[in-house]
Amino acid sequence: MIMISSEAVNETGRLAEGFLKEFFTKAGRDVKLESNWDEEGNSLIISVSGDDISDFIGKNGRVIDSLQYITSLSVNKKCKDFVRILIDIDGYREKRRQELTRLALESAELVKAEGEPVSLEPMNPYERRIIHMILQTDEGIKTESQGKEPDRFLVIMPADQ
Q1: What are phi and psi of 50, to 5 degrees?
Q2: Does the CA dihedral 77-9-51-67 come out positive or negative?
Q3: pTM
Q4: 3-state DSSP assignment of residue 64
Q5: Domains of the chain with CATH codes
Q6: pLDDT digits over 6-35, tens only?
Q7: Gap between the Cα atoms of 135 and 67, Å rounded
Q8: In terms of Cα–Cα distance, which of 132, 151, 48, 51 is closest to 94?
């Protein structure tokens, strides 16, 4: 795992919060921002809360993913060290993580019961990584990403295939 200095995290957090504050202000929204370092994910999580901001999540998280990408580009070009930024709006990422956990476990059980691979819907790299991590200790199955972005998807298959 790459070690990132607390100075780099603090600088990135300050710049990202400034960028997002300006973005939401220009969009006419009053938001509260909170930054936390996630050791496990090796990323800076910026939680955004406020009234009437769920439209910044978008269908299947596409808007929040785009906002995250733009924020990361803007902030990391100003910083010496690259810091992964993850934006969460009104707890969307945690809810999605719970959905992905359920999907991963149910799909793994289906694969073990039927002995046939299961292909999941296309997902962004972050979501595919969550499923890979959830299932990595299950010796009865293996996971593999297939396809090309933005339609890259995950296949869960028996370990002996």
Answers
A1: 165, 175
A2: positive
A3: 0.81
A4: helix
A5: 6-90 (3.30.300.20), 95-158 (3.30.1370.50)
A6: 888 899 999 999 999 999 999 999 999 999
A7: 29
A8: 48
Question: Among 19, 32, 25, which residue's Cα sits nearest to residue 67?
Answer: 19
Strand 141-146: give its sheet, edge to edge.
118-119, 153-158, 141-146
Q: Kind and range of the H or E element at 119?
A: strand 118-119
DSSP 120: P
Band of pLDDT at residue 3, cut at 50, 70 and 90: confident
For 112-135, the pLDDT digits (tens) are 999 999 999 999 888 999 999 999
Q: Are 16 and 44 in contact (CB under 8 A)?
A: yes
Cite the DSSP H helix spans in the chain.
6-26, 62-76, 92-114, 125-135
- Please answer whether residues 85 and 67 qualify as being in contact, where contact means their C-beta atoms are separated by less than 8 angstroms: no
Tokens coding 145: 């990403």
